[in-house]
Task: inverse folding
């Protein structure tokens, strides 16, 4: 009899633990509607001048850029994982000179405002499919270029995570 | 309520009344008046520009949504400041920067290194420029843990009592007292250099 | 060495958190214990130092644009919860979607037809347009889309627009 009681108590405990973990994960998922990855990238035909600062871009995105643009090498300058709620705007600084305002407007639509040295440059509205990237880019010195890549990330990375 | 051309002549409570009736211009005036202070409080707790901007923005939106709950017993600034503080604490909890089980924290709260520190009394003679002094204090605040800094900010800068801090931080009054004590002692050590410089 | 309980009492005394009886006990401790007095002096001086000496961290962006952004969001949220009857919403959505599609097709065709744009592009693919809203009068840019690479690109002409290179 005592064994049955103990088994019941154990079962209740297991169910309670599972339920509480589920509740916690639900809460975490509710925090943001989408997660956007923003990567600042530098494209060049030369070598990496700052190996300690600039990381080789991941192959998948590098291949995409290579298939479209003329540069041979692409290095990641910074990366930001940003959680967004629908119709809420977040402003982030991606470099000393450049800031972005991001607004998730529902479905897969992202509104991006670009600021250079504090001045508004342009606003872009992009619909970005799950495996797509949206790019804002421009020329840089000595025949190099900068790229800002935007992509939606799977929901488990729910919090702003400035990796560098 | 019609808004006069010069909104500076209007008190916060009148602007709040107008905002309650859906007047976003009046609410915008409140934002213009207090956005620096709200950002400052968010930054002082979060120590991160982007988090602070997010939170101050969120605080204004929450304030708008909850205007009907503002009873006018405190000032509007105090009220929205509390909203901001709560958002910061929520964010720190989400980021798990508050980790009650952290061994370091248990060590600190039960005395840890700070209990062994010699007593330091900064000399209050005025020598440094006030801004420089504030910068030094800010740098010292940067060096203590989130838990200790937050208690210190809520007590010294916001004037909250132990009980209010305990409620906001979801901990016991005893924990608040311990954190405050060791935060102050740590600050005394970090600012002991001011002594040699005439402070 | 005074124990931790007494240390916290001295602090609570300083913070005005003790009852009259508690204050009396700490007064007696301070009168008879030099270490307690030193601790009291340290806590008191750090409290005075912090009071009125909080560094201001002002909003790091233009206050007007911050205000505009928030009030704009409030209006958007207000509109979101109002007035269009549910019956009409699907029709409005369809009209909006059709208009957007037409605009995108027009923008795509226009960018393909525009010879100066095709001269400027650094890419070797120029396939389609994207929805874009130029607000800075002197900002110029071109847009294109690579279906194969799954990339939508907005290329900002940095020679004529005020954008500074974000690299640095």
Result:
């Amino acid at each position: 009899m005592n064994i049955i009681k103990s088994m019941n108590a154990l079962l209740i405990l297991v169910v309670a633990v599972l339920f509480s973990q589920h509740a916690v994960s639900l809460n975490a998922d509710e925090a943001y509607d989408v997660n956007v990855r923003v990567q600042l990238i530098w494209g060049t035909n030369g070598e990496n001048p700052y190996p300690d600062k600039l990381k080789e871009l991941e192959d998948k995105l590098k291949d995409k850029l290579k298939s479209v643009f003329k540069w041979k090498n692409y290095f990641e300058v910074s990366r930001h994982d940003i959680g967004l709620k629908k119709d809420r705007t977040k402003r982030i600084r991606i470099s000393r000179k450049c800031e972005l305002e991001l607004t998730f407007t529902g479905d897969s639509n992202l509104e991006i405002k670009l600021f250079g040295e504090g001045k508004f440059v342009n606003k872009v509205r992009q619909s970005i499919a799950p495996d797509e990237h949206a790019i804002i880019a421009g020329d840089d010195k000595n025949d190099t270029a900068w790229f800002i890549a935007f992509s939606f990330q799977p929901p488990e990375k729910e919090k702003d995570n400035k990796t560098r | 309520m019609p808004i006069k051309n010069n909104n500076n002549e209007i008190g916060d409570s009148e602007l709040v009344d107008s905002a309650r009736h859906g007047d976003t211009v009046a609410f915008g005036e409140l934002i213009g008046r207090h956005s620096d202070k709200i950002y400052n409080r968010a930054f002082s707790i979060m120590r991160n520009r982007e988090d602070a901007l997010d939170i101050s923005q969120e605080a204004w939106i929450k304030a708008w949504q909850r205007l009907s709950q503002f009873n006018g017993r405190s000032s509007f600034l105090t009220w929205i400041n509390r909203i901001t503080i709560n958002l910061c604490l929520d964010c720190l909890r989400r980021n798990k920067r508050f980790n009650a089980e952290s061994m370091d924290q248990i060590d600190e709260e039960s005395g840890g290194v700070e209990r062994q520190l010699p007593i330091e009394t900064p000399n209050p003679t005025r020598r440094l420029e006030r801004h420089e002094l504030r910068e030094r204090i800010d740098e010292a605040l940067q060096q203590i843990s989130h838990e200790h800094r937050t208690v210190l900010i809520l007590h010294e800068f916001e004037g909250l009592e132990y009980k209010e801090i305990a409620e906001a931080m979801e901990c016991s009054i005893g924990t608040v007292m311990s954190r405050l004590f060791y935060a102050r002692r740590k600050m005394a050590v970090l600012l002991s250099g001011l002594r040699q410089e005439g402070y | 060495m005074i124990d931790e309980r007494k240390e916290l009492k001295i602090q609570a005394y300083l913070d005005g958190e003790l009852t009259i009886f508690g204050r009396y006990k700490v007064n007696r401790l301070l009168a008879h214990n030099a270490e307690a007095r030193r601790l009291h002096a340290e806590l008191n001086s750090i409290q005075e130092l912090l009071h009125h000496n909080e560094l201001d961290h002002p909003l790091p962006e233009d206050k007007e644009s911050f205000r505009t952004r928030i009030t704009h969001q409030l209006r958007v949220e207000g509109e979101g919860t109002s007035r269009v009857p549910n019956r009409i919403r699907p029709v409005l959505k369809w009209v909006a979607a059709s208009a957007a599609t037409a605009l995108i097709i027009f923008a795509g065709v226009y960018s393909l037809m525009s010879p100066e744009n095709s001269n400027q592009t650094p890419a070797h693919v120029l396939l389609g347009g994207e929805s874009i809203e130029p607000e800075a009068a002197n900002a110029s840019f071109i847009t294109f889309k690579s279906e194969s690479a799954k990339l939508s690109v907005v290329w900002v002409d940095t020679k004529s627009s005020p954008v500074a290179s974000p690299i640095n």
